[in-house]
Amino acid sequence: MDQLTIDRIATAHPKIREELKNYYIECNNKLPKGVRLRFAYVYRSVEEQNKLYNQRPKVTNAKGGQSIHNYGLAFDYVIMLDKDNNGTFETIEWSLASPYHKVIVDYFESKGYEWGGSWASFKDYPHFQKTFGNTWQTLKNKPTFKDTNGISYPVL
User: What CATH number corresponds to the domain at position 23?
Assistant: First the structure.
């Protein structure tokens, strides 16, 4: 397991946190030796989102508050490879033609997560989200609670 990913999962909305951890472990077990799934982002603050929004080249259309990451209900992933077989997983596999991407996409879609690669516009291939039927607008207007990790989440 990747401790960095486990730490990032701890920032997910409490409603999906435990399932996301279990799914992460299950999905990793479907990948061959020398290949590891890593979550690059889970929760992202409004400030972090605005920095990404203003970044060039453009990587997101979502301003702070407009991303499902801001509510702890999304994650972005990367595939890490241990090319030297030394346990370091230092290489990132970017090719969408990689069979590992299909394993990850098929797995998380089967668990009810929406894949950003299936969107009609601005495809976000490394992105998954579970919104429980909400949009960012409805999530933004929900009452919130502060979790033990200090992050405020919408009441679902």
Answer: 3.30.1380.10
Residue 155 lies in a domain: no
Confidence of residue 121 (pLDDT cuts 50, 70, 90): confident
Count structural domains, the chain: 1
For the purposes of burial, counting CB atoms within 10 Å of the CB of 108, is it exposed (0-12), middle (13-18) or buried (19 or more)?
A: buried
Question: Does any domain span residue 40?
Answer: yes
Residue 123, domain member (yes or no) = yes
User: Domain of 70?
Assistant: 3-143
The 3-class secondary structure across the chain, one letter per residue, is CCHHHHHHHCCCCHHHHHHHHHHHHHHHHHCCCCEEEEEEECCCCHHHHHHHHHCCCCCCCCCCCCCHHHHCCEEEEEEEECCCCCCCCCEEECCCCCHHHHHHHHHHHHCCCEEHHHCCCCCCCCEEECCCCCCHHHHHCCCEEECCCCCEEECC
The pLDDT of residue 111: 98
pTM, rounded to two decimals: 0.94
**152 occurs within a structural domain:** no
